[in-house]
Design goal:
alpha/beta, Nucleotidyltransferase, domain 5, 5-stranded mixed sheet, two-stranded parallel ribbon, 32% helix, 19% strand
Length: 124
């Protein structure tokens, strides 16, 4: 019963590689959605932009974030100062956000000279 092995069995290697691929793809989807939990509003028409915008996130509690970093109270002007005024600004507001707070944020951003301000929604 002494049989010599002339070939390498690649089936376990393929199995391990497929498991690793699934793990990488699963974690990549969690990373790309962002760290701040916001339940976005739904829309039937959603635009696709290719440039990298300045992202302002407004949570249900009213907390502001600029590109995943917290903005202090009344500090939006300070954190937006270094960004060029022709940049696209995307506001990600939770769907239960009070409309008045959302309008205040958009007014403040537009008052700083940013002309392209839009709302991020989820296509339904």
């Amino acid at each position: 019963m002494n049989r010599e092995l002339n070939q390498i069995n690649v089936i376990p290697l393929v199995d391990v590689m497929l498991v690793l691929l699934v793990i990488v793809l699963t974690t990549a989807t969690f990373i790309s959605t962002g760290q701040i939990p916001v339940d976005l509003a739904k829309s039937t028409e959603a635009g696709d932009r290719k440039d990298v915008p300045v992202i302002i996130t407004l949570t249900a509690e009213g907390q502001l974030y600029l590109n995943d970093s917290a903005v202090p109270e009344n500090g939006l002007r300070i954190v937006l100062e270094p960004h060029p005024r022709e940049s696209l600004v995307v506001v990600r507001a939770d769907k239960v956000t009070v409309l008045e707070r959302f309008v205040q944020v958009v007014d403040e951003v537009r008052g700083l000279g940013f002309g392209q301000v839009s709302l991020e929604v989820v296509k339904s």
